[in-house]
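pls ignore typos typing on phone
guanosine-5'-diphosphate + seq
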Amino acid sequence: MQYHLENDKQYKGLTVKKGIISPPITNPYFQIKKKRLQYTSSEYTEQILKGNITILSQAVTLIESGKSEHQKIAQEIVEKCLPYSGSSIRIGITGVPGAGKSTSIDAFGIHLVHDRNKKLAVLAIDPSSERSKGSILGDKTRMEEISRETNVFIRPSPSAGSLGGVARKTRETIILCEAAGFDTIFVETVGVGQSETAVHSMVDFFLLIQVAGTGDELQGIKRGIMEMADGVVVNKADGNNIEKANLAAAQYRNALHLFPLPLSGWIPKVMTYSGHYKTGITEIWDTIYRYITFTKASGYFNFKRNEQAKYWMYESINEQLKSHFYQSANVGKELAIKEQQVLNSKISSFMAAKQILDLYFNK
Ligand code: GDP
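k done
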């Protein structure tokens, strides 16, 4: 037995017994494994094409990851899924916070899945979500009814990065969802910033949700969004709000008449409905499908998709050039120095930019 001072004869009554050696708190047979990619890109693709939602989710996580090994395999999956994509109807949904986007998406989703036998993927673009720590949009808890449906896939906004980066990830996610058999894709965004333009550039139909009685129906930024809209729907047309909603709808109709006829040749429709009481929903979807039929017949549908593909090619080039520029070591150091010089009026912003670019291009 080990020596213990307390066992000395001088300390009467004090003894230390042998006791039990306590076992380690962790299981010694348990090894912490480095997380590895589980599958090859072909295996991911095969499962996605079979409609395996767990694997689809994992592949979307790879798209969203900043790690280069994840990006590499994600790009391979997107490439492999591409031939199986494109056959869905992509709908952009926007509206200011409180307009009723989540309530409406819930109501639209239930209508599409139950009455029209559709498979729906709900995605979102919310570049602010990084700042607000956690996504506001595309959150399952906000869409209670459809989150219980097996034919609905909900994915919150990718949170990291610039709007361009977030939008690219959502666009790639659309491709995977289509390959997995989702025939209707919603892309939700908040109608307060630049993200509508990004959403507009990846959808076939852009739906603007408005509410009556906010007093700012035709003002400010929403005018720009109104011009992008293929349909304007006034929500909360229920109870004693019906009259106000009808009045707002009439105002929107008048306002839309002042805009030039869109390239699609389709005059945007204005409708009232209630997401909460699920009234007017069928009419909205009848109209959206009429638009799809109309633009497919005129060739505009394909034209727009091709234009969007071209747009994303350039977006992707721009984004990668930008990140290569900002991540290069010598630029990083010089940027901080030049920024300070510009702030102290020691050098013009144009000269500073030129010098940094010269450095980058090794001139
Ligand atoms: P979001 O921020 O655009 O997603 O809006 P929400 O869907 O969260 O709705 C904001 C608020 O408006 C909530 O309190 C909803 O209950 C309410 N709301 C949404 N749709 C309707 C509707 O059709 N009628 C009424 N009366 N209230 C609604």
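The pocket of guanosine-5'-diphosphate is lined by residues 95, 97-103, 235-236, 238, 274-276 (CB under 6 Å). Residues 313-360 form one domain. more later
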